[in-house]
Amino acid sequence: MGWLRRLFRRHDGLIPVNEVFTPGSPAKRLFVERTREEKRLKSALSSAGMQVILFGESGAGKSSLAEKVLGELKRRYVVTRCTSKTTFEQLMDSGFDELASFTTVEKRTSTDVELGGSTTLGGGKLPASLGAKASYRAGEGETARRVVDPQTSPAALAKRFKSRDCSWLIEDFHKVPQEVRDGFADVLKIFSDTAHPRTAIIVLGARETSDDVVNLPSANVTNRVAPIELRPLTDTELGELLDEGGRLLNVDFSEVRADIIASSAGVASVTHGLAKACLDQLDIEVKQKTLFKVSASVWDDAATEYVETYAGGVRAQFTKALTDKGTKQSTYKNYKVVVRALASFPEHGATRGELLTKIREVHPDYPGGNLDLYLRKLGEEPRGEIVRKTAEGKFRFDRPLQLTYARTWFKLGETSGLFAEKLEQYVPAERDTEVEGLDALIEEYEKEHAKDHAEYFAWLAENGDEYPAPRTSRD
């Protein structure tokens, strides 16, 4: 009967927790005002022919902002989510599919129907062979096929969106291959040419600049696209988010507020997740009729549950990030070198220069080009996407748990705290920490110069500090 109780709760005026704290999806009720960005987005979407690139760090709230504004403008829209394997053809095909472009066109007894076709599109930087292929199982007495011809094009897609008064929200566009990003400017231009007041493309990408999301090759395209940056929430704003969530649910987070914010490291989705974990510990599913306080002991249990929920995923990400399988033989274990250096900095990360200085403390001749290459690769899906570049130009781990996991992996010592205690069991006991080479160098140096140092300190003890530092065979 649990489903029946939940059904009644939906209609008795009590707000469900999973509509307030939403760690895995765009916010539904809980928003921190982003007045400037909302105003710019509304202005762009109200200008016929204007397309939008909404960019910023992962977890900054791009999806939440886009869906909030589209809802307030009462716009119809469909969503396409990209991956690192999304091709240009699949992206175009997804647009048609999301518009539900199948219909019943005739009656007969049928089985599975498969349709296919292809054509070559020219123009811009991406002449593409575009195919459309779909399978649809019709019921008895029906045959189903695409309303549109399988030989689709961006122009046909733009016309279809215009006819439906519909916009297209494309998420995680930064993940698609470079050739897709380079060529998508042509699609933005074609949609812009329709100049329809209720049809637009909103591209979301976790990158430092809009050009890193979509390459706009000419002013003719640039003038038709509104780039809007969304920066991560500050600690103050994360606190406001937590306070507002508590108000909506009649829950007091004040005793654990600082812990949740500190553990979030600027990522709103982590704040959502930790707050929800606290309420899960208390079996709170809806707004409370009397004020309920979250205690420190509840926070400890919630943090444990949070780590156990996500640690397996973090371990899998680091397995992908640090594996040497499939890499060329090199003087350096580059992935481990870079991750270890990054783990030695605080949660808000370090600049490229700071990272290179840290690496060269161990590897004096480490090439700067290696650092650039492997920082980029560690931010891509094949390597677990564990590193991101911030709006301030710093590099940091994508999630706070990843920083703690890395420090535990490399035995850096800065691993005290609740998360570290819980993560220890998820780190492989036998692992390459990339520090054995440094330990060996130190040991070799100490053996080679033991006599010099002994003489030096003996002289100091007898004569004061006038004795010059001993010269060695390396000087």
TrEMBL record:
GO MF terms held by the record: ATP binding
Ranges in a coiled coil: none
PROSITE patterns: SIGMA54_INTERACT_1 (PS00675)
Key words, A-Z: ATP-binding, Nucleotide-binding
Entry keyword annotation includes Nucleotide-binding: yes
Record has Magnesium as a keyword: no
Protein name: ATP-binding protein
InterPro entries tied to this protein: P-loop_NTPase (IPR027417), Sigma_54_int_dom_ATP-bd_1 (IPR025662)
Entry superkingdom: Bacteria
Signal peptide region: none
Alphabetized SUPFAM superfamilies for the sequence: P-loop containing nucleoside triphosphate hydrolases (SSF52540)
